[in-house]
Hints:
By secondary structure, this protein is α+β, with helices and mostly antiparallel strands. The chain has 6 helices and 5 strands.
Amino acid sequence: MSPAQIHKAIRQKPEFVGDRANVTPQQIYNWWLGLCQSQWHKNCDEFKSALEALRKQDQGYEILDNTTENVSLAFTTPFFKDLRVRVTDVDEAFVDATYQTNKNGYELYALVIERDLVTVPISYLLLDTRSEAQKVMVKDRA
């Protein structure tokens, strides 16, 4: 459930309201975020945290051999294995990317396929493309 859904559920159930009548959406969001982060935040370093979370999971994500610590992290999703069996079913494949979305400056690339009008990510690449000077600037700010 999202924080907004939790807030709405609390408001709609009189048995839950009681001493929670004054709980704010921001308080619920902070509580929810803390619970979610405990599932994936494994290390203060974002790269190491992602690597550790992927190594400990059993959901079908696989880290690829070309991963270089603090430079690149490549991994496949469970959909990738499914794709190997039915490559002929893929209607379209493309790369999607996000830039400057985290404090360490990693870029995120996703290899995405469309099959039966459904779009699914089959692999990801987290890549540090910053220059050495930019990396030093980030470390100095920390």
